[in-house]
## 1
Amino acid sequence: MADIVDIAVSSDSFKTLVTAVQAAGLVETLKSPGPFTVFAPTDDAFAKLPPGTIQTLVQNIPQLTRILTYHVVAGKLMKADLEKLGVVTSIEGSPIPIDCSEGFEVKNATVVAGDIEADNGVIHVIDNVILMG
């Protein structure tokens, strides 16, 4: 099995996420044993952000790092685990609400593919970039 970064790199859906993770210097962290739960926005999710947002964030590494680490939770949490918890705390430190009453929602995003196992955690693919606040 591959780690979280290798899975993202091998997919055609996460080019923006991979670029952002590299820019923020988080590759080594996400290749470490973890385990981690990653809510991974697709390229289409990043494309929904206002024009210029990605370029601005790549030039503001502390802000980019905060946003990316808001998409990561310590531990390997499958959908069933998240459903029981209702809210999890990101490694950034902010809470992420989980709603499985009608589908699988994470804050303002819908999980479009969940429980993708990696050897250092799990990936849940989301259709929006989740923002703090």
## 2
Amino acid sequence: MRELLLKGACRFTDVKNGLPGIATNLLSSRLRDLEEAGLVSREDAPPPIATALYDLTEDGRELEPVLRALGLWGLRLMDRDEPGESFQAHWLAYAPLWFATDADPTAPPAVIQLVASGEKAFIEFRDGGISTRVGEAGEADLVIDGPHRAVLGLLMGGMSAKDARELGLRMSGRRELLRRLMPEGVHARV
């Protein structure tokens, strides 16, 4: 559900790539169950795609607040590293989008480049809103680089800058931009 909510309509392989370690038969079974429950639709796409596309139905999209709540709950586990874990850039990009608001909506536009465990995404503040994208920003006002646990822990307010630095986090640029990220339901970091 999270993958389809974040990416929109996807091929089976796109969904599978977003869920490292899931067995093909298990994913097929779960997609079939979600389709039968009316939460996911399956449509055969025309060429050049010529494969099935999975997407959330309207009922499936209505689960966004539930997925958000689960993600917020899971942030408290971000300070732990588990062997064999993988990390993907789109996870980095969706966290600030789902869990934060601009604390200074009248401030000028700004960009924070995130580099977490080698994966890149950026946060853009503009016109009182926050948008996030996977990839590299052209010009960043602040660069935050380090292990994904430290980067996400800092961004989401579950970890102080001091604790994040102890895990290997590095910052360069306008650190005060962190104050513009106001995690919903999470308290202070700087």
## 3
Amino acid sequence: MAREISAGGVVVHRTPEGWQVAVIEPQKESPSRKPVRKTSQKMLLALPKGLVDPGEKPAQTAIREVLEETGLTASLMAKLGDIKYTYVRSWANKERVFKVVSFYLLRYESGRIDEIAPEMRIEVKRALWVPLEEAARRLAYRGEKDMIRRAEECLRGAEFC
């Protein structure tokens, strides 16, 4: 079975209205994603993430992917955890893949949401801020919803952070 290692970020930003989190609306269903159950959700929202490049540490990948997919510069606060699953590639040889995605809590530093390179529009339809307390309900993937809950715990001062 093939293996893939990815990393992503939960980017938070404190505003007068409360904590906001950066999410993306993928351009289309990524081949590495598990199928999403049909819901009344109008748009599919996800956290920014991507494959770890050779020689790169997962935390570096998370920061890079956030910049590429959202237009935001962020700094590392804490590791939130890993999501592990298997999927079958829908292209090439239909190979089964074991995937690990490490997620990090990141603090917004600078940049404007959705100001991304034109070539990233192949992957990302748009990036947007959503209130942190709504994010778990609005995200499409269960593991990512769990990472939002962990981020909320961290921001409330949980010990594991």
